Fold:
Amino acid sequence: MTTWDDLYDDADRARLVDEPVKRVAAPVRTPFERDRARVVHSASLRRLAAKTQVLGPQADDFVRNRLTHSLEVAQVARDIAYPLGCHPDLAETAALAHDLGHPPFGHNGEEALDRLAQDCGGFEGNAQTLRILTRLEAKSVDAEGRSIGLNLTRATLDACTKYPWPRPEAGGKFGAYADDLPVFTWMRTGAAVRRRCLEAQVMDFADDVAYSVHDFEDGIVGGHIDAAVLDAPDELSGVWETVRDWYLPDVEDDRLDAALKRLRTVRTWSPTEYDGSRRALSGLKNLTSDLIGVFCGSVHTATRNRYGEGPLVRYDADLVVPAETAEEIAVLKGIAAHYVMRSPARVALMERQRALVEELFAVLVSSEGTLLDATLRPDYDEADDDAARRRVVVDQIASLTDGSAVAWHERLCRSSG
Structure:
């Protein structure tokens, strides 16, 4: 009988710094179980409870935040991984960790920090996640006493890496800053250039699934989305432009029309207006469940049709996402983007958030490290040049929650102004 030890070898289970076997009374956990526990108990994961998913955490008791989103991605990832033969703890840990690097104010804060950090390597939430896992999160140290973050296994770190390449000269997504390349290189030992392991692909697809159905759900419950208006051609035209602007630039209207038509055949898609009743909420929850099942089922079938029935791990296979499934997911994401992220109130709020991040960054840079958290001051003092010091300031701002960013700005910027 094939076991996890047969599917994942010693190199997959290796850690940057070897650790002694713990002598404890409890049952011995596998390396990947220990990795999952370390992420679950990390301060960085707890902070996600107060970070924006789409709507701010204070907008409503119902809406998702980054933590609840990550928990939902983890469940979807586990459900995809297990039937394919991937280690479910690996996929779940990657999903739990995938948003650790997000700064306050969601993608809006990410874009603001990227502009401010251009002279020190830019900012990317996925690269920040690697930095947190291997440097910033307090757990383990090397022989010289330097922090090595959670000291996760190679396979787990690789599964957490959505974009396994350094910052490209032409711009775009990436997974490692220049000063994190040593651990990135160690993590990628034996991997083909720019190829993602299967567990990372599972995490990425689970993120897309959860993001699409749950933002759609939140938008309806919050009164931002009325699914009935999608019958109007003028409304659809605007939504399809958002889909092209944000997700699928080359897709044509007829393919998006067909994708929406397929979504409407899901048995729990209701044509009636959402009225906030328990019955309506129950129907909406059943719709999200059915949509997740449809998306994951199509990918499982397509992947098995290509690779057969054996266990698939690491670089044995690639996740197969049918074009129709990708278009259906893009339709749901586009609806949420069009009616929530592009609403006039949301655009005005985002402008204020960007200004807050810029002002806070300027104050922290000018303070020469004196205003940083105690955990980051040594990093600032030991930095070799201005670029490295600015990177520490970026680390500080990225660690803040939405509420703490506002509080820091109120304390440091308003008082100095």
